[in-house]
Amino acid sequence: MENERNNVAKAEKGDSGAGGAGRGWGWSGMRSRWLFLLVLLVIPAVSFSVAAGGVFLWRLYESLPTHSQMQNIQQSVISKVLDKDGNQIHEFSVERRIWVPLDKIPVNLQNAVTAIEDRRFRSHWGINVQRNVGAVITNAVRGKKAQGASTITQQLARNLYLTADKTYIRKIREVLTAIQMERTYTKDEILELYLNQAYLGAGVYGVQAAAEHYYSKNVEDLTLSECAVIAGVIQLPEHHRPDRPANIERSTARRAAVLNSMIATKAITKATAKATMAEPVVANPKVYASPKAPYFIEMVRRYVADKYGDEQLYNAGLVIQTTLDPVGQDSAEASAARQIESLQARLNRMFIDANRLERQLGLPRDRIIANFDSIYAANAAEFSKLHDTLKYRKAQIAVVALDVRTGAIRTLIGGRDFQESRFNRVTQAKRQAGSSFKPFVYSAAMDNGLSPATIILDQPITLVTSEGEWRPENYDRTFSGPMSVRDALAKSNNLVAIQVFNRVGGETVVNHAREMGIKQALHTGPSLAIGACEVTPMEITSAYGIYANRGIQAEPYFIQKVTDRNGRVLEEAKVKERVAISPSTAFLMSSMMSSVVCCGTAASIKGLGFTRPAGGKTGTTNDYSDAWFVGYTPQIVCGVWTGIDERHSMGYGVTGSVAAIPVWTRAMIALHRDLPIQDFRRPEGIKGVAVCTQTGAIAGESCPRTKVEFFKAADSIGVCMTHGAAKNLSSDMEIFGPSRRSGGERGSSSGGSGTGPAVDQKKKEPAKNRSMF
Q1: Contact 763, 770 (CB under 8 A)
Q2: Which residues lie across from 686 on neighbouring strands?
Q3: For residue 576, what pLDDT is reported?
Q4: No. of H helices and E strands in the chain?
Q5: Is 117 noted as a catalytic residue in this protein?
Q6: Is 625 one of the catalytic residues?
Q7: What share of the chain is helix, strand, coil (3-state, %, to 5)?
Q8: Residue of 117, 182, 515, 745 marked catalytic
Q9: Active-site pick, 79, 331, 335, 435
Q10: Mean pLDDT across the stretch 240-257?
């Protein structure tokens, strides 16, 4: 029994051992299964993370600058506009930056910047590991990105290629880009880029622009104190800029920090730093002159932007040399301002009187005149309700001067105030020409059988037009009887001009005006003879230049040359010219228009100080709404227009002689300051003949007064039959009626007889070897 119990016990023990063994194998299997499952989960996760990290790094790498981009850094640089002498008159930029090479930047400024911004600049490889780790720890402790650790190379990388966003992704890009830059450029090249790239407050970028703006000097002329101040501005530009009184204390403290850093880097001694710290922080901000020639500059801007694009204009550092004469422009602007002031005072008085403001406002007239602007502003709402004929008007002006041989625009004023109105009246305003159109009638006549000596009867005429009968008049409603074409032009006689127009033919005059470059709509009716048409100041001034340039028109232009930042010429102007009329016709017209200046409606020119040989023509339209003078020498042609945009009267007596000639004279005096005195050269095919002043025929011994007149060589000229025997009187020497009083255009002055120079009034013998000029 006991044996059985033992056997049973052994069996149970054996079973128990076997069961224990079975259970131990089971737990091990379970652990293996869990491990297997864990591996199945971890491996994909790790693989996914590695793949995602790879994609992230690849995309990060792709976002970095390419090798080509790294090697071709093009910083935004201002584009300069130069006058004809090469002096800067304007600039275009988004970031005001003036590139300067490192060898022009003082060593003190280089050392100041590296000392305060990156002391290990010369030794690190793009990043400062110690500073970056410190910054990470500080930012982690503070719980925000409070401390930066960017080296100069990192700052440059951020400024050139990245944003200022404070994110870890941007920081990684910054670090990688900085390392890449260090492999591409030398330390000096990186420092040069940085010093030209850094923003230094007040809208200026780079140390040269900062030196100009804060100290009115070039960067190479900065003192140690000024170098330290500019270096200190980099950290917080608007906070430390020295041109603001509120910043002086902060700027002084920042300068001290820079100087102490320079001591630490052994760039300067303690004694030097101490002496420099004793100096006050004093800025000498650049005083920017008022923009010169704003309408001209706007033409330049539009041309360059249209041709090269805004990116090139504002960022590419173009050098745009123009044709502008700065002295002539300044003189014209000053004279135009004075004239506008005078014309506006007249218009103010007209407004006061028309609206009876003395009674309406209960103020004395003198007080209203003296305080007109403020009084008008206070009552502007009420005045705006006035009838159109009673509303307040502003005087306007347009001035343009051209080199007659090249077409280069030397002076241009498009209005009284560019900020008030950007409408360029030189090129865009279509205004009635008035008597300034008459030269085109007469030059067409010179090509069709008439001469300066042709006699036309100034008498009442009645014309039948499509609108009914028209009885034109001279300005003073008088008649002069027989008068030469020369005298008629000098005195701006309307009736003679109309008869010459009818004699030549409307189609002929229109075609001739087209040849002269007039592009606006022209009709063939007789009123065209006295300027019933519209022209722009630019086109009529250019047309007059043909007379000065011996029949050749040079196309106006204003861009002489454009070069890129490296000095490569992108374009250079070439004179574009065409033959418009013959040299003989051009000379005859210059001869006749010299009489306008000498003895006609423009006789005041010499009294105003311009004594060179010159020709030109005044023009005044109905109701004194336009006043012109276009005149020229053999070198320069200048046109002046004054008026009101809304085509209202400027007031009784405001003629071309009164409103335009004073501005023309001052501009021309300045434009001719360095030019030799020249006369109009007589071309081949022109002959000078002594004629009787009364008949215009070849003078005989009995003619009481004679003068030398010019004719084309092929002209047939008759002999005076009034004072002697008639022989072969040319058909164009017609005599009509007795002489009466002279009648001219509005505002014409008597100015003498209009017979021109070279008149011998005492002798019966013809004057010999005399010039009309």
Answers
A1: no
A2: 712
A3: 97
A4: 28, 23
A5: yes
A6: no
A7: 45, 15, 40
A8: 117
A9: 435
A10: 95
